From TrEMBL:
Belongs to the alternative oxidase family. Its EC number is 1.10.3.11. It comes from Buddleja alternifolia. Pfam families: AOX. This is Ubiquinol oxidase. Homodimer; disulfide-linked. GO terms for cellular component: mitochondrial inner membrane; respiratory chain complex. Binds 2 iron ions per subunit. Its main location: mitochondrion. Keywords: Electron transport, Iron, Membrane, Metal-binding, Mitochondrion, Mitochondrion inner membrane, Oxidoreductase, Respiratory chain, Transit peptide, Transmembrane, Transmembrane helix, Transport.
């Protein structure tokens, strides 16, 4: 068959079917083979062909369903299990559709009350070790450590000049940055483990737990204060620059990247210490702790903002030690997988 003849035949076929196969218009007068839906409408398309046809409804089922709803016919909703029901914010019952019968489980607290948080579950909660040394400092002896230390010192001064004593806003910006290194490091270690067909020693999970913990700090502060529009814009700019810079730094030298994070966490500990000092002086209102913080850190019901800042500072001290430890391992010529990651804190 010549190319010209094939082109002509293809054109004829497309001319006859373009109103049906190459568009999302509704089939008119279709009776499905499964019997799940019968839509007797007198017209098929502009062509007076196949007034009643038997075709699979896979391609056009969503379109047909919406068309039926528009014309007032009743479409039977799929049956849901009792697990698909939950209480909404107004106290009513909201139906949550499940995917292939996999419904969200019902979770309760120890006292039998329903668990209200979807961002974390009861087995992810913990009690922070507030006895951890918050004054510990890694002394910069070699060139790499000094470079990491002074890099952090240079970066912190613009932040202090911008926020000054506005600790709540400073903490929110700090957490948007602090949640980046763990995610970047865990992601790169994950890909490394896949490439080399080897275990990570638990460091992937440890770094991802660190990132999630920092994000929970941010979610807690959002319950107490809301950032302004220019602070949100600043987060976009800072996070975009820091993510790419840390990504490159971790690829070039993971031990340098972890050392930088270690010093960043030291500054975070110092920042929260100043926050606590101002709370004790009465410069800030010691508000009641938000419910999300009480459940996440297993705090007493009568906890206050001071208690929340105390446990967050303990978390930052733990992240400080974890990253300095990771850097020390690699500075001694070893790989992270050779030493088990300090899991179980969060």
């Amino acid at each position: 068959m010549s190319r010209r003849a094939a082109t002509q035949i293809s054109g004829l076929l497309l001319g006859q079917t373009r109103g049906r196969l190459l568009s999302t218009t509704t089939f008119r007068g279709v009776i499905t083979t499964s019997g799940a839906s019968k839509i007797p409408i007198p017209r098929f398309t502009n062509y007076e062909i196949l007034r009643t046809s038997r075709v699979p409804e896979v391609r056009y089922w969503s379109t047909m369903a919406s068309e039926v709803a528009k014309e007032g016919e009743q479409v039977q909703a799929p049956k849901l299990d009792s697990n698909d029901e939950k209480v909404d914010d107004q106290g009513g019952t909201a139906i949550v559709s499940s995917y292939w019968g996999v419904a969200p489980p019902k979770i309760s607290k120890e006292d039998g009350s329903p668990w209200r948080w979807n961002c974390f579950r009861p087995w992810e909660t913990y009690k922070a070790d507030t006895s951890i040394d918050v004054k510990k400092h890694h002394k910069a002896d070699n060139f790499m450590d000094k470079f990491a230390y002074w890099t952090v010192q240079v970066l912190k001064y613009p932040t202090y000049l911008f926020f000054q004593r506005r600790h709540m806003c400073h903490a929110m910006l700090l957490e948007t940055v602090a949640a980046v290194p763990g995610m970047v490091g865990g992601m790169l270690l994950h890909f490394k483990s896949l490439r080399r067909f080897e275990h990570s020693g638990g460091w992937i999970k440890a770094l991802l737990e660190e990132a999630e913990n920092e994000r929970m700090h941010l979610m807690t502060f959002l319950e107490l204060s809301q950032p302004t529009w220019y602070e949100r814009a600043l987060v976009f700019a800072v996070q975009g620059v820091f993510f790419n810079a840390y990504f490159v730094a971790y690829i070039v030298s993971p031990k340098l990247a972890h050392r930088i994070v270690g010093y960043l966490e030291e500054e975070a500990v110092n920042s929260y210490t100043e926050f606590l000092i101002d709370l004790e002086k009465g410069l800030f209102e010691n508000k009641p702790a938000p419910a999300i913080a009480i459940d996440y850190w297993r705090l007493p019901p009568n906890s206050t903002l001071k208690d929340v800042v105390t446990v967050i500072r303990a978390d930052e001290a733990h992240h400080r030690d974890l990253n300095h430890f990771a850097s020390d391992i690699q500075c001694q010529g070893h790989e992270l997988k050779e030493y088990p990651a300090p899991l179980g804190y969060h």
